[in-house]
Amino acid sequence: MNILITGFEPFGKDEINSSWESVKLLPNELKGNNIYKVLIPVVFNVDKLIENIKKYSPDIIILVGQAGGRNGITIERVAINLDDAIIPDNNNYQPIDNTIKLDGENAYFSTLPVKAIINNLKDNDIEARISYTAGTYVCNHVMYNTLYHINKNNLDIKAGFIHVPYLPTQTMDKPSMKIEDIVKGLLSIIETTIDYRKKEDSKIIGGTIY
Ligand code: PCA
Q: What is the distance between the alpha carbons of residues 74 and 65, in angstroms, rounded to a whole number?
């Protein structure tokens, strides 16, 4: 199988982005499957990502972004049809209350096996939970556009988004995670997704009340 995994450039006041710092350390192969790692810009434009989807014809797409301030790895379950940027992107563009795709659904769900992923991360002692919002900035935009592209073109690709915390070097007072643990977590997520490529997700408790 071909697996496309992306990380982001730094944005805002940050000098590095924990997503790319960890994605770039992943191997090029796992259990006979190819892993293609691609760095994408923090802009409200997915041209580079779509080009790479066409180039690698992936069976699985795992998009990774930094969620500075969150603790643990969060598996995003849903992307919404809304751009509402709190800061300008790296091209100095700041959409407010924009619909992403006029002919798109209000939302798309991740097609990664989110429950099985959480289960396996916990077995590996990696702090993780499901998240029901990827925000309204570039990460949500990228997740939404990826799922829209797959849906509109009827592609047989499992795809979703993972937010990772800051690295310890990025913050004095916010939660963070060691890079070894983020990399271990991403490997577990890739393995679980490979195992579930043709299977339904595990039906296990993992929802949230608030
Ligand atoms: N995090 C931002 C954009 C890029 C990144 O790594 C976000 O969560 O939208």
A: 10
